[in-house]
Amino acid sequence: MGEREHYYSHCSDAGNNMRHPGHAVDNGTILAIDTSTERLGVALLHGTRCIERQLQLGTGHANQVLALVAEVLAEADIPLSAMDAIAFSRGPGAFTGLRIAIGVAQGLALALECPVVPVSGLRVLAAGVTLPGPVLAVIDARMGEFYAASWLSGAAAFAGAAAALPESLLPPGALQTPCASLEVWHAVGPGWPALGATGQAPGGSGPWVATWPEVSVLARLGRAGLARGEGCDPADALPVYLRDQVARPSINPNVTQLS
Questions:
Q1: May I ask the CATH architecture of the domain 123-210?
Q2: 251 and 194 Cβ atoms separated by less than 8 Å
Q3: Over the stretch 22-68, which tens digit does the pLDDT of each residue have?
Q4: pTM, to two decimals
Q5: What is the DSSP string of 175-242?
Q6: Which CATH superfamily is domain 3-121+213-245 in?
Q7: Helix or strand or coil: residue 41?
Q8: Strands, sheet with 39-46, edge to edge from the N-terminal-most edge strand
Q9: In the chain, ranges of CATH 3.30.420.40 domains
């Protein structure tokens, strides 16, 4: 069972308890929330317009996330009740951050009686890459390990294709293998500085195209997921940790300063 099927087997259909949009969900209005990394992001996608707020915080996401939600709603001049779904980064990522995102998404969606759409944080990173070629997304899992997944291209990740390397928790040396046979591939994600500090980062990559997840990409993936039937009853949504231990400080103490 692949990454997507495994996750969504735990996530029921939005069902009769959820409010259904009065229009095609492939053009739905989506509120997206990402607190999975040091960057806090909130976006509102309505038609072709996407309003976003992103803050490089390190910590303190819980104190800022609802204020950012209010900001994007005010700028769009759209009430919260107009949301067709709440998309959130389900992980992997920072344990506390994942709990914040799922808690806020569930609370809002329960009040609105709308579904939530959980999206892989590694997929969000990969789907933001517009250059052709394979993409390896990496997040620092700390304790000398890394969350990683790869896709044949950023476009494939955006289209919902299964990952070539399913999201995994790996020691740094294990990331050499997925890249060994590739002439050009693209490195994406906030884990790369910490991976480089280990001296075991895979060589031969193309441009390092991005550091942090873009919440606008999460919003668009959320809309596409809703159209594919991946919306969940809020009570059924689950974070994906890949590890059940408490995180420690990053290998590279400067990683949170990158922008």
A1: 2-Layer Sandwich (3.30)
A2: yes
A3: 455 678 999 999 999 999 999 999 999 999 999 987 778 898 999 99
A4: 0.86
A5: GHHHHTT-SS-EEESTTHHHHHHTT-PPS----EEESS--HHHHHHHHHHHHHTT--B-GGG-----S
A6: ATPase, nucleotide binding domain (3.30.420.40)
A7: strand
A8: 49-56, 39-46, 30-34, 85-91, 116-120
A9: 3-121+213-245, 123-210
